[in-house]
Amino acid sequence: RANQLDIDLIAKGYGFLFRNPIFLSFMAISALQIGMFFSMNGFLPYRYEQLGVSTAAFGFYFALTPVFYLIGNSLNRAYFHKFPERSIALGTAICLTSTLLLLLTQSIGTASPFGVALPCALFGFSSGLVIANATIRGIGAVSTYAGTASGVIGAMQMMAGGVIGVFIVAVGGAENTAIA
Fold it and tell me: How far is CA 34 from CA 151, 153, 175, in A?
C-alpha cells in the first residue's frame, strides 16, 4: 500500500544518501551557508545594539542582508542557473570574502554600523547564489530518493544554524557579539 511506512525502504534511502559523496558535498555547502545565515541574523540585533544603533536604523541595516539575498537569487535565476557549480563557487568565494571583511572590521576596532551591514549584505548576496543551487544539485545527485534528500538537507540546514549558534555562544559570542 502506498500509505504504509516502509522502514526498510527508508533505511535504504538514507544509506544511499549518506554514501553518496556528491550529495554529501552539496548538502554540507547548503547547510553551512544557511546555518551561518541563521546564526548571523540571530546575533545581529545585539551587535547593532552594542554599536548604539537605534531601532529604526537597525531595521535599515538589517534589511540589507535579505535584500541582497534577493538580488543574488534573482541574478542566479536570470544568469547563473545554467552553471550551478560556478555559481556555487562564486558564491562561496564571496561568502569567504564577506566573512573575512566582517572579522577584520570587528577585530581591528573599526566597527561601525556600515562595517557590519556591508559585509552582511555581501554575505546575503552570496547566499542567493549558493543556497538554491547547492540544494538542487544535492537533490539531483540522488534523484531516486529526492524526497528523502530534500528532508535530510532541510534538517541539516536547521541543525547547522543551531550548532553554529551554540558554538558562537560557547566561544563568548553572547558577551562579545563582535565574535559572532
Answer: 15, 11, 23
